[in-house]
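Ticket reopened. Same input as before:
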Amino acid sequence: MVTLADVARRAGVSKSTASRALSDGRVSAATREHVLRIAAELHYVASPAAVSLATGRTGTIGAIVPAFDTWYTATLIRGIAHAALRHDFDLLLFELGEHGEHRDRAFDHFRRRRHVDAVFSANFALTRREVGALRDLGIPVGAIGGPTPGIRTWCLDDEAAGRLATQHLLGRGHRDILFAGGRPEEPLAMYVAEEARHAGYLSALRSAGLAPRPRRALLPTVAAAKEDAAAAFAADDRPRAVVAASDEIAMGYVLAAREAGLSVPADVSVVGVDDHPHAAAFDLTTVQQDPAEQGRLLIDWLAGEIDEPSGERQHTALAPVLVARGSVGPAPAA
Amino acid sequence: MVTLADVARRAGVSKSTASRALSDGRVSAATREHVLRIAAELHYVASPAAVSLATGRTGTIGAIVPAFDTWYTATLIRGIAHAALRHDFDLLLFELGEHGEHRDRAFDHFRRRRHVDAVFSANFALTRREVGALRDLGIPVGAIGGPTPGIRTWCLDDEAAGRLATQHLLGRGHRDILFAGGRPEEPLAMYVAEEARHAGYLSALRSAGLAPRPRRALLPTVAAAKEDAAAAFAADDRPRAVVAASDEIAMGYVLAAREAGLSVPADVSVVGVDDHPHAAAFDLTTVQQDPAEQGRLLIDWLAGEIDEPSGERQHTALAPVLVARGSVGPAPAA
DNA sequence: GCCGCCCGTGCAACCGGTTCCACTGGTACC
DNA sequence: GGTACCAGTGGAACCGGTTGCACGGGCGGC
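Engineering reply: fixed in the latest deploy. New output:
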């Protein structure tokens, strides 16, 4: 392995001069060029461990994420990995486990191994304790998720998304609209988001002077939604219009509708949230969000913060966009 | 930040003794216990940079993965993250980009920053050059994917999976079976896998003395499959039985069938491969694989290899399992 | 009772960089 | 012409661990 000393010796300068030439210390232009050429010839690469030991910088960003075999988290991480690479940071992944079983270890982990320059959490709601643990690390901290006091955060404006979806149905004349999704007792951000989307739904109905239906709470999976929908469609007052808290839930409702012999959108209109990659094949009208873009925003900010901390803590709510497809039709004649 | 010197001073011993007490060097039991207590009191944690500089070990495993907003890759990474945590390794993620645009950088990256104890690639086919680049790192290397000379690999026995799916249809009396999927010109493992599944399909038909239909090549997404299926179902000799190279393709076929007014399985039988989380909601008969388990196997092996290299290089083909649901029916009467 | 071995410990070198400080030589300014 | 300053460079300390080697003391074997 070729070291800085090798480069220095070969270039006929001291280690310090070689080091300065390779970073951006004060050296004459001629020396710098010479050292750089030698370094290139020797294929010299600085040892990250040594750099890290000397500078305290690690060139790595830590991620704390829940089990990410969901479209949302996986796409988010894709955006994050991409942006991190652009800033020349490595990405260190800590996963909370399928049922959050490693959650306790996560925060201790980054404290113990102080080998990241910044940390973020994504897609789950931090407890006050956890917020404190992250801030105690003394490095920049961000999060993808709902507004969280003390941390810079980004996420879709979920309330606006719920409102937008509901208003879209109202605009087609629907007056009796069901909201499907959410298990508020669970602390995952997924449910925090669904809660906010539900609030948007309520607000839209209230503005229109309409009464909500009782909310149908369920796990945010296609399978769970389908089962729930089957029950809903079997009832006497089966829903004619549904705001689903996510596209996966919407897909479950569409599948169940077809199985119940109902046509979408003639017999029932459905709006989702996400613009999941499968949404187009379901011809699903939905409220779009772009997790990869959210990840980019987060990393760009963290990279800047590592350079010179601003200590900002505010929340950024990203504007939702409605994507109209074929799963919404006019309300049935009264 | 409390250092080893602090612990040593407080314990009244030298740095070396403290170090040995904390690892497993030779120290008297009394000294060890004493040092450990002091270290705990002081919440001492070794600096990973210093350890890494001194030992060459980093406690990190590097991952090279394609854009992982697919179910397969995301689930694989979940299994890997879980297993790595169990072995007390960190996971460093390198993502190839949505269209493989960072692929060239990936291999150089791990060479330059020599800060991982092992590397693996997942879910794409390595070129001979890339295999060489990985092996040149001088650390254990593994891969999730097809057999690759020179590297220890794991993956589903894709040929057996294709055969199993086809035989399942043959067993219900089908004689005219279509295979949907695969774009062999692309180098992603996805297509390597589809190629092998197609080979299994051909082999099953050959054994039964039947002729294959011309293969329908398409991108492995629900949307692409749906579009392709719409064309297939509009033809005069529309297929009555389909082996899809993946569940997402199968879902596209099911959606298209319904839209064409065809009933599954009465008018057309469909078998997928994967057991995707949405498969149950589609009532899809499929050949199961468990990416998380594959990830576990990989990491367990790598962790052992880091400890004491065996230099093994063989391929492990994992046996497929058929999950029978409702998307397959008997062949139509001749 | 003496020799030799081994256990437990400390000293110091080392891993591979960065950076403070001192030094030199040249230039600008008075 | 002398002084002040500054650019450019080298020496050496330092980051925080690990580990080879030397040393002292206790104990077993003859």
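Residues 189-207 of chain B form the longest helix (19 residues). The first strand of chain B starts at residue 60 and ends at 65. Please confirm and we'll close it.
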